[in-house]
Amino acid sequence: MADDRSRRRADRARRAPRTSGAPRTLGNPAPRRRVPQLSRSRPRGVVAATTGLLGLSSPKRVLALAVTVCALALTVTVPLRNYVTQRQELAAVSEQQRQLSTQVDALTQRRAELSDPAEVAVQARSRLGYVPPGEVPYVVQLPSGADAQRAGEPASDAPWFRLLWREVAPTAAPRPSP
Predict the structure, then answer these.
(1) What integer pLDDT is reported at residue 108 of this predicted model?
(2) Tell me, what's the pLDDT at 91?
(3) What is the torsion angle, in degrees rounded to the nearest 10, for the CA atoms of residue 16, residue 22, residue 26 and residue 28?
(4) Percent of the chain with pLDDT over 90
(5) How far apart are CA 2 and CA 7, in angstroms?
(6) 168: which DSSP letter?
(7) Helix ranges restricted to H, 16-159
(8) What is the pLDDT of residues 34-71, one digit of tens each?
(9) Distance, CA of 10 to CA of 21 (rounded, Å)
(10) Is 19 helix (H, G, I), strand (E, B) or coil?
(11) C-beta separation of 98 from 104 below 8 A
């Protein structure tokens, strides 16, 4: 047992850092310095100063945190972008559906109007020039551009006051001569 104690002392003496002063021997160990024990409740400023920013004390930990934050950001960004895109597409499709519904309502109303035979006859007469049997159609043809100027109609490029004078002049009463 005494042999074990002396062996442990020798191991401690070899491992202990050398200090200035007399050399140590097995029989004369260096006096131990008393290291003050840190209490468990340290001030916050001391913890932040000793452990670095955000509790990270080494560049490897900072790199690991940066990689983790980037991975989380990428993990959240892609689904968020898809969500926003789908919401925009949904809004566009809803607007298009509303417009198509309005068109369907208008066309349904138009179909109901055209199911009446009297409305069909009016449309055929105005659009296509159809005439019911027994009626005599008359077509009025207006003169073409050159014929219109010869007929006394004012030219369309004349100033407005000349056009007005031409309209008013023929109807004005002649002045009595003195």
Answers:
(1) 97
(2) 97
(3) -110
(4) 30
(5) 9
(6) H
(7) 44-51, 59-114, 117-123, 145-150
(8) 656 655 555 555 555 555 556 667 888 889 999 999 99
(9) 18
(10) coil
(11) no
